[in-house]
Each structure stands twice: as C-alpha cells, then as structure tokens.
Amino acid sequence: MKVINLGEGNSVLNTFMAEIRDARIQKDSMRFRINLERVGCVFGYEISKTLAYSEKAVTTPLGVANVSTFDTPLVIAAILRAGLPLQNGLLSVFDKAESAFLSTFRKTGKGDYFKVYSDYCTCPSLEGKTLIVADPMLATGASMESALQKLEEEGQAACIHMVCPVASHYAVDQLRQRLDSRYTLWVAAIDEELTSHNYIIPGLGDAGDLAYGGKR
Length: 216
Hints:
This protein is α/β, with parallel strands linked by helices and about 220 residues long. It has one domain (about 1-50, about 75-210): Rossmann fold, CATH 3.40.50.2020. Helices cover about 30% and strands about 35% of the residues. It is built from six helices and 14 strands. The chain has helices spanning about 10-20, 30-50, 85-95, 140-150, 170-180, 205-210, and strands spanning about 1-5, 55-60, 65-70, 75-80, 100-110, 115-120, 130-135, 135-140, 160-165, 165-170, 185, 190, 195, 200. Strand 13 and strand 14 form a beta hairpin. Helix 1 (about 10-20) packs antiparallel against helix 2 (about 30-50) and helix 2 packs across helix 3 (about 85-95). It is globular. The model has no long low-confidence stretch (mean pLDDT about 90).
C-alpha cells in the first residue's frame, strides 16, 4: 500500500484542515461540511493525476482542439454518514463517476474489544474499475477494512484509493501490513496518538456529529 500525505506540502488544503480541526469553527456545521467538500475537491484533483488519459478531438465554434482527458471508469464510495461531504467534493471533480454507499457500525465486547460490521452496501459493479473510498477519519483502520471486504463482493477493482484526511499512525501501520500494491491511502494529517477508546489525538472529534448533529 502506498501512502500519500498531502498535508506535508504547503497548499490551501492545510487552511481547510485547520478550520476542520478548530473547535470554534466546528460549531458551524454548514462550514464544517463545506470544508470537508473542499478537502474532497483537493484530493480528487490529486487523484486525477494518477488516472489513464488519451487524446480526444473536441469541436470548438472555430475549429478542433486536441485535449487529453481521462478514460478510467470510477466509483466513489462514502462510508456513512461522515463520508458524505467528502464524497460530494470528490463527485464535484469526477462528475461522471458512479456512487456507492456503505454503513458500518462498531459492536463493543468485553473491555476495549470491538468488532466492526458493514450491514448495508449499495454499489455498482466494481470489476476492473477504479474505486475511491471516502471516510474523514481513520482511527484503527477496522471500519475501512470492513468496508473494503464488503465492497469486494461487488467485483475486483483494478485500483483502490482511500481518502481519509485525518489518520492515526497506528491505522496507517495496520493497513500497510494488510493491503497490497493496488491500494493507495491519501491523507492530509497523520496523528501520533490513539487513546484506549480509539480516539485520535489531536484529531478533530466526531466528524459525523459535527457535520450532521448528534445522535442518541
């Protein structure tokens, strides 16, 4: 698995990430969603550089222009519910991409043990396509692994990109050990600390609650 940390370079992405993390700005849920969409746009632009392109003739009002555009069939999957704004940003870049939606939940056992289940998935065929999976945070990597296993039932994608703006060092290490060269993890920050309750420190809090409100 390849890991690309866009936050290591200076760009407007870091401004969006600063606002997403800022506890004061987070109180504006619309602003939080918009910033996640902006982050998705940035990641989409960078991912576009990895796709297959070919030259095409485009008829203009005055002639014909030869332009290289990508040919790669795409599916963009959101892990509900926090992944929705991120997916929207990616879709604004890849407007002809197909969409997939997954629901994952954590079932806690004794002590700190938990298991993640994916009980809902709607997805087109992935056979031979490029898959982009959007989830704002990667704490242990368990939700992402569960989502990927569920998506495998829809066909074998040729290439898989995971877009997770904030990840823990632990999750990155776990996925590196388990995923092969078909996978690329795109992040904007890798935080060192993961608590016993699997919260990323400094992290940003619960992305789903910040985007859409609390839950019972």
